């Protein structure tokens, strides 16, 4: 029986995935190469520095550690410019209704994001009161596909991992859920999220009772 829902942030509760992409694309442009949305799939759910490594590999760019740190900082500045302008209208369709349904059905809720910017985003989206626990990039040492972020969330909620379902838009996040011993629901493309137990297009037509039917 499912007792808790753990939500990824970027691409699940809001569409910040597009801002990460735009910021990385801008960095790639400055370095003189193009960066496509398909290539961006590899960066989803991956930490900032690991994302940079993947981007530099795609562009065949080699540089010093110091230059890398400056690049990551630059990308983050552009990203923060985008998220500082966000408001509740950028919550993805159906998210607020589903979070309310979780409350009504006695399901515990947690955020499981490796983003160091998660706190700012939750504040701008006014989501703090809907989440019983928040685990973000400031509290984990391993990014997805490592299960650390989700296991911490379950621990914080006091829920056994086997009674948790993870909602994720990234292949790395689905793998992390599996490694944590949790159920998973992919949000997005079933081709990319083929490891998930179920894949849905979004929360719009999704209801808490489906969790009882599925798991
Ligand atoms: C998110 C994104 C990743 C991003 C990572 C680090 O993880 O999906 O693309 O690289 O956070 O973000 P930041 O640079 O803000 O620390 P998640 O776990 O929310 O999907
Ligand atoms: Mg995500």
Automatic annotation (TrEMBL):
Active site: 8, 10
Biological processes per GO annotation: carbohydrate metabolic process
SUPFAM superfamilies: HAD-like
Cofactor(s) demanded: Mg(2+)
Assigned EC number: 5.4.2.6
Reactions catalysed, as given in the entry: beta-D-glucose 1-phosphate = beta-D-glucose 6-phosphate
Keyword Magnesium among record annotations: yes
Residues with site note (Important for catalytic activity and assists the phosphoryl transfer reaction to Asp8 by balancing charge and orienting the reacting groups): 113, 144
Keyword terms, alphabetized: Carbohydrate metabolism, Isomerase, Magnesium, Metal-binding, Phosphoprotein
UniProt xrefs under Gene3D superfamilies: HAD superfamily/HAD-like (3.40.50.1000), Putative phosphatase, domain 2 (1.10.150.240)
UniProt: Mg(2+) binding residues: 8, 10, 168-169
Binding site for substrate: 8-10, 24, 43-48, 51, 75, 113-117, 144
Recorded GO MF terms: beta-phosphoglucomutase activity; magnesium ion binding
Presence of keyword Magnesium: yes
Co-factor binding details: Binds 2 magnesium ions per subunit.
CDD domains named among the record's database cross-references: HAD_BPGM
Pfam families (alphabetical): Hydrolase
Family, per entry: Belongs to the HAD-like hydrolase superfamily. CbbY/CbbZ/Gph/YieH family.
Protein name per its UniProtKB record: Beta-phosphoglucomutase
Gene: pgmB
């Amino acid at each position: 029986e499912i007792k808790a829902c753990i939500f990824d942030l970027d691409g699940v509760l809001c569409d910040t995935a597009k801002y990460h992409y735009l910021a990385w694309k801008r960095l790639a442009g400055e370095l003189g190469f193009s960066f496509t949305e398909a290539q961006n799939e590899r960066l989803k759910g991956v930490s900032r520095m690991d994302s940079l490594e993947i981007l530099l590999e795609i562009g065949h760019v080699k540089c010093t550690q110091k230059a890398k740190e400056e690049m990551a900082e630059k990308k983050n500045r552009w990203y923060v410019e985008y998220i500082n302008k966000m408001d509740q209208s950028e919550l993805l369709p159906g998210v607020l209704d589903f979070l309310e349904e979780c409350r009504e059905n006695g399901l515990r809720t947690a955020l499981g994001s490796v983003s160091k910017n998660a706190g700012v985003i939750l504040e701008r989206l006014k989501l703090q009161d809907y989440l019983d626990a928040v685990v973000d990039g400031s509290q984990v040492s391993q990014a997805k596909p490592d299960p650390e972020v989700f296991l911490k969330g379950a621990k914080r909620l006091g829920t056994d991992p086997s009674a948790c379902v993870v909602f994720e838009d990234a292949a790395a996040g689905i793998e992390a859920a599996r490694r944590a011993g949790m159920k998973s629901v992919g949000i997005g493309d079933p081709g990319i999220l083929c490891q998930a137990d179920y894949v849905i297009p979004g929360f719009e037509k999704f209801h808490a009772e489906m969790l009882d039917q599925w798991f």
